[in-house]
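Hi everyone,

Forwarding the result from last night's run.
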Amino acid sequence: MKKISKRLFPILKTAWIVLACFFIFFAILFTSFRALTPLAKQYKVDVEKKLSSILGQTVHIQTMETSWYWFEPVLKLEKISIEGINHHALRIDKLLVGIDVFQSVAHWQIQPGGLHIQDVSLDIHQNENGWDINGVEFQTKNAIDFDALKPALAWIFAQEKITVKNVHALI
């Protein structure tokens, strides 16, 4: 019995040390992420520019905050308006974008987590070419250019979870 415990003790000790190092590493990682999230507010203008370049339309964000939901940092965007050429706007009251920390660390780049959209106001009207949504304009009136939308659609469909609440459509 003593021979077994003498052989087993070093293995258990090594396993405990590895497990302790694992927990310490992730504690430092999450503490660092939590400490750095308030700094994300200063990039509101950069986020507006990036979204405007992706959508090809002007995007305005009234407030941008960061928070945490369990182990996921969340970027909160409030009072978003997407303006087209004719200055009609698509309005979103609240947009929450989560970042999957585990996948981001595994891939060494930011990976999306969840997407929560709340209180969207759509103004839909019919014209001679079909239907239009204010704030959503396409380069060609007869067809949608899906090649231009591929990066935005890829990002949306890469979300782990998508929630849409309170969509108001005026037709």
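The longest strand covers residues 112-127.

Cheers,
N.
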